[in-house]
Amino acid sequence: MKITLEWLKKYNACGEGVEWFKYQQIEDSGEIINHFIKLGEHFDWADWLIIRLLPQREAVMYEIFKAEKYIDLFKKMYPDNLDPQIAIRSAKKWLADPSKENTNLASAIADDAYNAYEQAGYRSETYGDDHSKAADAAFAAYAACDNTNSNIHHDSAAVYIKGHNTTIEILKYGMKLIKK
User: Fold this and answer.
1) Backbone angles phi and psi of 80, in degrees to 5
2) d(CA 130, CA 107)
């Protein structure tokens, strides 16, 4: 898909991203994402672009994929908090049957996953990167459930560590979903 300044503004791209776009020659969304992967930077911008290009069902699939990449770390750090795992299962149930009942269930569970994210995110400020990754898993689980209820896709906090192989794997998975 061709990306334009008007498209970026329509989807509320950050000012820094809009400025970057003005002064480069790439307009194809896939080429832009590949550019960031090759540079090993702005993974958050690539993720932002992917989530806005995906139809609702694929956006949920993408968020589930991200959540599952780090959910084991969340389980290890917060063994008594099952909310993100329940959110992932609920989002998968919605994928299998996007009924009103499953949409309502996923929506209700999303808040619990978001609370788990906040707990882990707060601890990441003190305890570092592993808590941050655990928070990312919980946020992605939240986003998976939240996206079942609307066509407005919410960003996930998929670990944006420069050059991180898992983040690159996540972005490449998103690109495959766009091409479907």
Assistant:
1) -90, -5
2) 27
Other beta carbons less than 10 A from residue 116's beta carbon: 26
Per-residue pLDDT tens digits for 2-56: 999 999 999 999 999 999 999 999 999 999 999 999 988 888 899 999 999 999 8
Q: How far apart are CA 139 and CA 146, in angstroms?
A: 10
pTM summary value: 0.89
Contacts 24+ apart (CB under 8 A), 83-87: 83/109, 83/112, 83/113, 83/115, 83/116, 83/138, 83/141, 84/113, 84/116, 84/117, 84/137, 84/138, 84/141, 84/142, 85/141, 86/112, 86/113, 87/112, 87/113, 87/141, 87/142, 87/144, 87/145
Give pLDDT, residue 165. 84
Band of pLDDT at residue 94, cut at 50, 70 and 90: very high
The one-letter code for the residue type at 26 is I
The amino acid present at 112, given as its one-letter code, is D
